[in-house]
Design a protein that fits this description.
about 350 residues; alpha/beta; Rossmann fold; 3 domains; six-stranded parallel sheet; elongated
Length: about 350
């Protein structure tokens, strides 16, 4: 079978890389130079460079070009880092780190968790990443929306994947692995319609609501109100505080007699820990579950179902999440060309109180 031209160009450049023509961190000729050298079009050259990037021989840096990594994916047998920001505020990220460590260490890899906290100005200390790279860091898994972390990896020529980000924010990532909760939202909308729900109240710790979900609610004639928890310090939230904050949010809202007299049809809690405290506050406010109000909660920590969830749970388990990510990265590290997976959320009908 005749080989395509981009493969032949990739092979030629790979021989030069393996022969030491370009040292780690060295910049390859520009696309235009390679186009003239091989007598081909720009698309063919870019396709060849993408092949070399997927195989781990180069990284592609915006404004710089193709940079030699000094090692191929299939030849790696060293250290993988999991880099997370504000992990103390996320039990999900902590459990995800544990599951990833279990999988990679079971395969003989040295797994290095790197947890970075932001200060009140939003600045981060990335020195841990640099120290790990000095000792040899072959690959990284990033769960962060902060481009500063990715920029450090780019600078150090450490290839990486990003969990739940956007490719346009991380152009040099090997992949951006997205969560897919579309089916869950569609199932929840269908359930709300069947129950003739007209009002939904969400208690949340996030800053934004999924736009597609919000649009679907609006199109279904369901009005939405959101109550956001206000922390004294967003960056110093610890696990033991979440349940109490859930209680305080709900108790404060229904301390208003008008809210108690006209409760929403459904309350959606951002996660299980908020729900645990919030459901207690609901009952103390004199509201009956599920007669006065029904409850939906996100479940993203793998815990047992929260008592009082009467309509549905939307589940994102860190164990299955970690397994999916690990399987993908291990195949990528073996030198294979694999498609980026989608993390599927599950819709689970609610349990009665």
């Amino acid at each position: 079978m005749k080989r395509i031209i981009s493969e032949e160009i990739a092979d030629a450049l790979r021989e030069e890389l393996q022969g030491g023509h370009y040292k780690a961190g060295g910049v390859l000729p520009t696309v235009d130079s390679l186009r003239r050298r091989f007598g081909v079009g720009e698309y063919v050259v870019r396709h060849a460079l993408q092949r070399l990037r997927d195989q781990g021989f180069i990284s592609l840096k915006q404004g710089v070009g193709a940079v030699a990594t000094g090692v191929a994916l299939g030849a790696w047998n060293g250290r993988i880092a999991f880099i997370a920001v504000d992990t103390s505020a996320s039990y999900f990220r902590q459990k995800l780190a544990i599951q990833l460590a279990k999988r990679f260490r079971g395969e003989g890899w040295d797994f290095v968790p790197i947890f970075i906290e932001q200060n009140k100005d939003g600045l981060m200390d990335v020195s841990q990443i640099r120290r790990s790279a000095v000792n040899g860091l072959d690959f990284a898994i990033l769960i962060t929306d902060q481009s500063q972390v990715a920029e450090v990896c780019d600078e150090l020529s450490v290839p990486y994947v990003v969990l739940n980000g956007y490719m346009h924010d991380f152009p040099n990532a090997k992949a951006v692995i997205r969560e897919d909760h579309g089916k869950c939202f569609a199932e929840l909308i269908r359930t709300l319609r069947e129950r003739k729900v007209r009002t939904l109240l969400e208690f949340d710790i996030e800053r934004k609501m999924d736009r597609s979900f919000k649009n679907q609610l609006f199109e279904s004639g369901i009005s939405v109100r959101r109550v956001l928890c206000k922390w004294q310090n967003d960056n110093l939230l610890h696990l033991g505080e979440v349940k109490r904050h859930g209680y305080d949010m709900v108790a404060g809202f229904f301390a208003d007699k008008t809210h108690r007299a006209h409760p929403p049809d459904v309350i959606l809690f951002d996660d299980d820990y908020i729900a645990e405290g919030g459901i207690v506050a609901l009952m103390e406010s004199g509201l009956r579950i599920p007669k006065d109000v029904k409850v939906v909660t996100y479940s993203n920590n793998g815990n047992e179902p929260v008592a009082g969830v009467t309509l549905a749970r939307i589940d994102n388990n860190p164990v299955s999440y970690g397994d999916t990510v690990a399987e993908y990265v291990l195949k990528l590290l073996s030198g294979g060309r694999v498609s980026s997976p989608r993390i599927q959320w599950r819709f689970i009908p609610g349990e009665s109180l």
